[in-house]
Amino acid sequence: MNTDQFLVTPALKSIEKVSFTWQTPSNIALVKYWGKSNPQIPKNASISFTLSNSNTTTKIDFVKKQNTTNQVDFDLIFEGKPKPEFKPKIEEFFNRIQNYCPYVFDYKMIISSENSFPHSSGIASSASGLSAIAMCLLSLENELVADLSKEYITKKASFLARLGSGSASRSIEGPIVVWGNHPEIEGSSDLFGVKFPHNVHPVFENYQDVILLVDKGEKQVSSTVGHGLMHNHPYAETRFKQANENLILLSEVLQNGNLEKFINIVESEALTLHAMMMTSNPYFILMKPNTLEIINRIWSYRQENQSNICFTLDAGANVHVLFPEIEKTKIMQFIDNELSRFCQKKHYICDNTGLGARQL
Ligand code: PMV
User: Whole-structure pTM over 0.90, yes or no?
Assistant: First the structure.
């Protein structure tokens, strides 16, 4: 794997003080990534919808230090207040990327970040949060090195974001991104996400994702622990093979618009992810009774209304309700009338596919 392409070789310009602000979205995997080896190399390829309204906005003020040290120096302000408890994860991120971004040692960084979604809503903010930092770093690198191509910036930002959180590699571009080397997806790589390379059927344009907030609590299992449990998992190899096969099937469906097959693959992937957790040791059940209640009601609604509604899950109890834009009015009524009561404080977030990182 050629990681040398991400080293900074030319001499750097001298810039005393500069700021950049980026807004990057979360994403929801359709074929899931669960299992990795070092350094953040996925055991199978995954594919996701990039979201739009669930995003993080991050500004980084870079101020050149008088003397470069071998210490990364940054302050973290989250939603207007210092957040020391978030610092270790970002510190670890800087440690992992320092060879590719040696300029981080030259600057004091003030990172100010906010999420569009409520904190502790059970929505993973690592994908949007780390991809936003990666974009700010690439903006700085672009000034220091000058004339980086847009293609290189996108690729390296995804490469850096991946080193922070695997799924963050899929939050730079949109609306559909593949991460993980797959023989049938041209240009795909374990090192960074790439835009789905084929024409997508119009039914998937502006695809809707309503996130039902069933449980806003802290994650029961961190994704680091979860991925780790795939190492001695009895079904691991079969699972990795299945995911790569599902990606081929989903690639066809995304091109031909066969929603019946789409629903079958996406729901099976969601339940398989949870089945992996239930069959690891130690084992976990991350779904709650209301998660199951919602799933059963989605299935009944689909049957009774010949609808194309379906669900997917992340590593938690919240339910992502997916459907084509054309069904929006009817399905929003169904969500309001029948599903919202199973959410904490009736909270849900309306989102749809989006185009990825945006500089502000
Ligand atoms: O990016 P991580 O290491 O937090 O892993 C995320 C894994 C899932 O969200 C459960 C699935 C996925 O592919 O996004």
Answer: yes
